[in-house]
Prior knowledge:
globular, Jelly Rolls, 9-stranded mixed sheet, alpha+beta
Amino acid sequence: MNNLFEKICNLLTEENTEASLGIKNEIEAFRSSQNINFSPNRATPSLSDEIVRLLKVSEHILAKQLIEAQKWLVWRKTTIPATLISEEISNLFYVCPIMGLDTYIPSKRFRLGFLYQKPNCYYPLHNHNAVETYAVIGGALDWSDGKEHRKLTVGDFVHHPSLLPHAFKTRSLGFLGLWHWSGDISPDSYKVLE
């Protein structure tokens, strides 16, 4: 897992924003002050198999580290409260929180983790108070803010200022990205817009 955290810090450095560098500093401070001891967890083996298939064809620097870390990562349904997101939408993706409240690395300022969205599905236009960034690690997706449309592939970043509507449509392999939130990181402001 230390190798994974090192690669995450390298990616955050590459992003080079105030938020990404703040997250990197918190990860490094945590790593230097803690004996990180992860227990293997295979709570979602079929999901892990899907993710590994996606990552095996990715050339992103984090792909290999993520494959090796799968036995320690805990993937779960969204961290968005069920009162704010329908089950139909929450079934489209899984998250693996790394930083935030009740995660590996505690933080009140940032949330960071991985998001896996299933192949050939549409995550509708939504927004939230948090400032958000995604780095595409595996797969590809069509991104939209309701006006502009972009095709995102491995190595691309996409940034969402607070309350910017955004939607994702995945392709045949699905999508895996590293995401982080800063600013108002409470999920209580999350809202589906369509």
